[in-house]
Amino acid sequence: MSGIEAIRLKNLRALSDTGFVDLKPITLLVGKNSVGKSTFARVFPLLRQSVEENRRAPLLWWGKYVDFGTFEDAVSRASSKRDMHFAFRFVVDTRRSPTDSPSRQAFRLAKDTTFDVEVAIEESEGNTFVSHVNIRAFDLSCDIALQPNGHIEKISCGSATWIRAALPASADILPIGHTGEVFPNIHFYRRVKQKDSEQESFRPIDILGARLAGMIRGYSHGNTTQSKLSEIAAEIPIGPVDDVLQAVKNIPGPYTWRRSTTSFTAQHPGFRELREWAFVSRAGNLLRYFNEELRLFALGVRYIEPIRATAQRYYRSQELSIDEIDSKGANIAMLLHSMAAHELQAFNNWLQLNLGIGVVARKDGGHVSLKVVTGADQKETNLADVGFGLSQVLPIATQIWSSTSPFRKRRLGRANYPTCFVVEQPELHLHPAFQARIADLFVGAISTYGSHAQKELRIVAETHSSSLVNRIGELVADGKVDKNDVQVILFDQSPDTFETVVRIAEFDEDGVLQNWPLGFFSGTSE
Cβ distance 226 to 254 under 8 Å? Predict the structure, then answer.
């Protein structure tokens, strides 16, 4: 499957550089206060609140889910350039149907490809903008530099370079990276004057594709038509050197083209330049594809805040169709009340299996009360009477289940899209024994998907609970969860530079954390 596999943050608050962090089915974020673990967790709802709105900026720093303040508040004070970087690792599967994403028809891949895409965000006159983009795949690296007004200054990959400043004034070319997306939407326009009029219009042109076609013409007969040159250009894939070399030699074309390409080798300057220009010319289409993939990922983010809503004895009834739990869990009663009987039964079976409880929503007049069901006698107790901790964990369980339920995903038209569930301090106000059960809840959720867990559901939990972490280790040792499906990200502060250092710890087959400081949770780590 295609999708986002990892994320990297630079110069965001306390995070100078996280390195690429894989998005495994279960990721636990641990560390002392004010070292960046909550910042990392809140990037996911930041992405969602950004893609849900029409905007002029790459990201909305404050919105429906999280509040990063302003750009000046969010950028690291240690950053001398006053910029921040967001990078994403995309894996694009060649088996995916082109009809799944129209933009994908505009570039060809030689094999499944991993792209590392990074944007630098800066501020100018109170407005944020993408100042730089880098796209990496295999040994290729495409750089795009932009001005605050969105104009493209330069695009380059190896020897393939387009520079705006090198254009003659008479060219009337306008290279624009349209704003309002995380990745700029790159287009080139030519200014055209209307006949018998002073009015001007702008017509889109494929200036980078034309450069590639011009190179191909150098290896073809002079009478080769422009359409044939474009056909040949479209057949040059993005891929490893040897794969692209073989593909180029297999492209049908004029005799002169086929004769010229027989002399190509991996070190041939002409072939290397063709491969680099092919990459550069697809940059715009690649960025449009990445924007769409990022949008779909972000729309699948489900976020629960660290302080959830307090349980109410009665909730005023509203005849609403509830699609998800809000970030505070305040609408949980309405969501449960809106469930069909068979759906609520399925949810309670899952809840009983993982937390040992059930829940029902009882309507009485114009109000709804939430009842917790416990024991063999199925005794019902109002949620307000069973302790504050349970009211804090119930929104977490409900959100996970409602976000991953095949019935609900089909109804919302998201059956084929992944869910990224993000929660801060799920253990809040819970006894250590019950904190450990949250680990069972997480493992039970991802085990629903088996081998597809990596793409269908990711859980990111920021926690201070040693009980939760240790229980995950026990479940690994018991074979309930694969050690490769879980990781613990430790955020710590360097004693020398006071910068946050990100360390990735993983479990071995016995459920023992590797690369883990001794006595971390006791405050005596070394």
Answer: no
In a domain, 249, yes or no: yes
**Assigned domain for 81 exists:** yes
Q: Is residue 261 part of a domain?
A: yes
CA distance 226 to 204: 17
In a domain? residue 25: yes
221-232 per-position pLDDT tens digit: 888 899 999 999
Domain boundaries, position 226: 212-279
pTM of the model: 0.92
Band of residue 105 on the pLDDT scale cut at 50, 70, 90: very low
Strand partners, 462: 29, 424
356 & 388 share domain:
yes
Strand 127-137 with 140-146, pairing: antiparallel
Cα–Cα distance, 89 to 290 (Å, whole number): 10
User: Strands of 185-193's sheet, edge to edge?
Assistant: 173-178, 185-193, 200-205
Same domain, 345 and 274: no
The answer to whether residues 406 and 448 belong to one domain is no
Q: Which of 259, 279, 299 is the last residue of a domain?
A: 279
Q: Which whole-number Å values give the CA distances from 220 to 237, 251, 267, 347, in the listed order?
A: 19, 12, 20, 65
Instruction: Reply yes or no on whether the pLDDT at 103 is more than 90.
Output: no
Give the other-Cβ count within 10 Å of 434's Cβ. 17
Say if CB 489 and CB 40 are below 8 A apart: yes
Q: Which of 295, 416, 420, 324 is nearest to 25 (CA)?
A: 420
Average pLDDT of the segment spanning 372-389: 87
Structurally, the chain folds into a number of domains equal to 3
What are the backbone angles phi and psi of residue 419, rounded to the nearest 5°? -115, 135
Contact criterion met (CB below 8 Å) for 131 and 144: no
